[in-house]
Specification:
The chain is an alpha+beta fold and about 130 residues long. A three-stranded mixed sheet has the order 1-2-3.
């Protein structure tokens, strides 16, 4: 199968998963700010690996993965109905800490900017 088609299906799966999250009533999924970072579908459409992240950290993402695993049958059926695929992939959910990691980087950058701003205010003669 062409990589273009697989990539398109991966993006479609990700888009539909984001919509399905709104319908799920599992408290493990609703606990924090959950995001689908990436969905990778194998070339034969047998499996889809979904990377789940939480703004609250890796532990919340792991809890959300447990919720997604318990709803995997429902999610697979919904994806099959919405995308009308001949073969609907089996889902594997993986906890990812990329959102929390990105948030930490932004906080550190803001701290650096603030320190730089304070240093410029203290000594305006040396600033460019």
């Amino acid at each position: 199968m062409s990589s273009f088609r697989v990539n398109r299906i991966s993006e479609d799966v990700k888009k539909e998963l984001v919509d399905i999250i709104r319908v799920l009533k599992d408290p493990r999924i609703k606990h924090g700010v959950i995001s689908i970072v990436k969905a990778e579908v194998t070339s034969d459409l047998s499996y889809a690996t979904v990377y789940v992240s939480s703004l609250d950290g890796l532990e919340d993402a792991k809890e959300a993965v447990k919720g997604f695993e318990s709803a995997a049958g429902y999610i697979r059926r919904e994806i099959g109905n919405r995308l009308r695929l001949r073969r609907t992939p089996e889902f594997r959910f993986v906890a990812d800490d990329s959102i929390a990691y990105s948030s930490e980087i932004f906080k550190k950058l803001d701290d650096i900017r603030e320190k730089d701003r304070q240093n410029r205010q203290k000594d305006p003669a040396e600033s460019d």
